Amino acid sequence: MLSRSNDNHHSFVYHNLKEPLTEAARISSIGLEKRTSTDYYWDGRMRPNDLKTCIFQYTLNGYGEVRVGEKTYTVKPGQAFIVKVPSEHCYYLPEKSPEWEFIFITLKGTKAEECWDYLSSQFELIVPVDANAPLIFLLQKIYQFALNEGIEDTFTSSAFAYEFIMGLYRFAKGLDNQQTGIPDDILMAIQFMTTRYHEPLSLESIAKHAGLSKYYFTNKFQKYMKTTPIQFLTKIRIQKAMELLSTTNKTIQEIAMETGYDNANYFSKVFKKMIGNSADSFRKDKKMPDFEHVIID
What we know:
Elements: E1 2-5, E2 10-14, E3 26-35, E4 41-43, E5 53-62, E6 64-68, E7 71-75, E8 79-85, E9 90-92, E10 100-108, H1 110-123, E11 126-128, H2 134-148, H3 154-172, H4 175-180, H5 184-196, H6 203-210, H7 214-225, H8 229-247, H9 252-258, H10 264-275, H11 279-286, E12 292-296
Parallel strand pairs: 2-12
Antiparallel strand pairs: 1-2, 3-10, 3-12, 4-9, 5-8, 5-10, 6-7, 6-9, 8-11
């Protein structure tokens, strides 16, 4: 593994994979980026070495643009774009956008191409995906594995590639919603926690927002989400804390306050219990000047 960094990025590059490459599906790159300069520009016609590469890029904050021919698409939070390389497209941070923060994955192989062709027939280029959709959780899981464990053999690379492809098919066919069947009141609670995690939320306030009693809400939430409301809220907060630790120089106290904790010591205890490392250790190992980017090729 080779680590490279400068003022704008830090990346992990994997060489000499241990097994012969599969032609069906494997991960080429995966990353979390936050772009603030209009220098960010990719032209799909100028990447000849990326033959048969399929890109899925999901916006977390801000927005970017994708241009195909004479048509320009804006990619907002809760939306992904899908393209294949090489092809006649470009994507970039436009001048009017202060930032574009996104998580992405690129795959190679015949099965990946088939999946992207199917997605294009269903969505054209922009794919709307809720931030709490299983597909986005899956992408975050693969990214965290790549960041923490590394993907250094093609068996692991292909296994995750196939898992993501199957996740895309399930999403495109509407099977995620059919499988979960999450009621509207639980979805309201999830949205409430996702957008207001930085506030001192209590179980009572979350249940009230869902229009349910605390006892009934807790049981119903656990039935559909397989976790308690407070555990779900904690996961959201710690994920945001990891992002802040990786992309900012804010103090632990500041990050605790921004993620709903009024006590840095308590935040640190919760963080270590969930992640296995202290917040300071996580920052030391994973700190990214502007974004986190993992490349496997």
